[in-house]
């Protein structure tokens, strides 16, 4: 009698669990981590974090994040520090491309995980009459296999296929502000600051070839294509304007494939 009752209970539990799982809506890796990390509104700084990586994680502008937490240039933060990501101005910015200026050169030196150099926070000079389309370059030569989407499943950038170890190049000149694997779902990640408006990211790389605070040129090899943080060999590429994801295809030059 007891054995039969136990069997009935187990079957009932299994049925309920199956029903819950089958009715669960698909959530992308980006959506899942975003919801988990923003639930409390407080980010506890981990070793390897810096202001740029935290702003990227929560989809906010690094300047607004710094201002909201009274963090000043060179934006030094420390492991264990609490960063308030609530009430950050999240207004959407226009996605109209503008010219990306070359930053002032900063001496290359050993990476300091939680410090951003003061020099790169300065406003770049204006160069009127040059369009953004002539400045942005494709970061890899492979075929486009994934597109930017604001609908589920959300994709904040594009995916480019490639072979393990193929070159990943800087899409525009700038300064490396993050190089590591501290952002879940991105694997080995490089973030480049091009000016006070634009940043770009290169995810899932097998090997990172640049260091934080290093100045890079457009087209310079910065990493190699890999599969870290994902299930296939590819490059995930993003552009952020004032902290907000924008469609890279609106900035990159047209090409076939």
Structure description:
The chain contains 4 helices and 13 strands. It has helices spanning about 1-20, 30-40, 50-60, 60-70, and strands at about 40-45, 80-85, 145, 160, 165-170, 175-180, 190-195, 200-205, 205-210, 215, 220-225, 235-240, 245. By secondary structure, the protein is α+β, with helices and mostly antiparallel strands. The longest helix is centred in the first third of the chain and has 21 residues, at about 1-20. A hairpin with a 4-residue loop joins strand 7 (about 190-195) and strand 8. The strands form 3 sheets. Strands 3, 4, 6, 7, 8, 10, 12 and 13 form an 8-stranded antiparallel sheet that branches. Strands 5-11-9 form a 3-stranded antiparallel sheet, with no helix packed on it. It has a two-stranded antiparallel sheet with strand order 1-2. The N and C termini lie far apart (about 65 Å). The radius of gyration is 21 Å and the shape is globular. Among the domains are: about 35-90, Membrane-bound Lytic Murein Transglycosylase D, Chain A; about 145-250, Glucose Permease (Domain IIA), CATH 2.70.70.
Instruction: Compute the number of helices.
Output: 4
Unreliable segments (pLDDT under 50, ≥5 consecutive)? 15-36, 90-112, 115-134
* Gap from first CA to last CA: 66 Å
Largest sheet: 8 strands, antiparallel
Please bin the fraction of helical residues: 10-25%
- CATH level 4 superfamily of the domain at 144-250: Glucose Permease (Domain IIA)
What structural class should be given to the helix and strand makeup? alpha+beta
Tally the beta strands: 13
Shape: globular
Order of helices and strands: HHEHHEEEEEEEEEEEE
Text of the CATH class of the domain at 144-250: Mainly Beta
In terms of DSSP E residues, the strand content is: 15-25%
CATH architecture name of the domain at 144-250: Distorted Sandwich
